[in-house]
Amino acid sequence: MTARVYVTLKTTVLDPQGQTVRAALNGLGYAAIAEVRQGKFFEIALASGTTVEQARKDVEVIAHEVLANPVIEEYRVEILD
Question: Which residues contact 6 (CB under 8 A, 6 or more apart)?
Fold first, then answer.
């Protein structure tokens, strides 16, 4: 089983790296790009025999307490079979 965690800055937090990427894309001629937000992606392999419920519970805790800073970031967890 695999878990995926997507971490992004909250929309209320300034994203200077995203702004730099947007400016670079605009400079390359991609004028339709209005905004870019950057983030982090984690893929976590879970031990065989782990239940979906336990995996979701554990990964939610890990995402909240370790992978994301809940003050400025939000996260989304996916559990894949």
Answer: 39, 40, 41, 75, 76, 78
Residue 10 · residue 38 · CB < 8 Å = no
Rounded-to-integer distance, Cα 22 and Cα 32, Å: 10
Cα maximum dimension of the chain: 50
For 13, how many CA atoms within 13 A lie in the half-sphere containing its CB?
Answer: 15
Q: What is the pLDDT of residues 16-58, one digit of tens each?
A: 999 999 999 999 999 999 999 999 999 999 999 999 999 999 9
Structure tokens at 38: 């950057």
- Whether pTM > 0.85 for this model: the answer is yes
Question: Any idea of the CA torsion for 43, 75, 69, 73, to the nearest 10 degrees?
Answer: 130
